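User: Show me a protein chain along with its predicted structure.
Assistant: Here is one chain, sequence first, then structure tokens.
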Amino acid sequence: MTESPDHTTDQTDQDDAGLNTEAVNDADAEVVDAEVVDPEVVDAASDDSNDTTSTDAEHPDTRLAAERLEDLQRLQAEYVNYKRRVDRDRAVVQEKAIADVLDSLLPVMDDIHAAREHGDLSDGPFAAIADKLESNLGKFGLERFGTVGERFDPNVHEALLHQAWDGTVEAQDNDATTIVMVLQPGYRTGDRIIRPARVAVADPA
């Protein structure tokens, strides 16, 4: 009868020990679960949340400034294109105006050229005036062209006569149609043909 209480006591101690062991295991599990959380991950998630909030709540003045900047850039591009177009048109109008003035003086230039060819402007005051006029017009790029023996070029010459080759003209190119007589010289300024040279041509034998 004396051994029964001891057996009961031992069993109770083992049960208490078992209960304490389970409690300790539960506590350790809670500690492990708490240590799994990474503080840097939490901070990063917090920063992302703040960035999203700041983007969604963009200040109205920022959007207005961006719109005004876009308008300014578009106006500047339009102005640059307009200025280029005006400068180009101004140059074209200026060239045409000069060409029109020179074209109106071509009859005078023809008379001077014919008089010089016949020896009427070899000396005297009229010769000086003719020289001065040709010199001043040359400042605007006026140039006379079309000579005997030159190769015929339909882009700058106008053939009024076609005759047989008589061998009296030395041709620049024996295989090409050659100018044998200049009926009226041509004039140009730069690459612009004011009047083509009117000529008589022949084919070398």
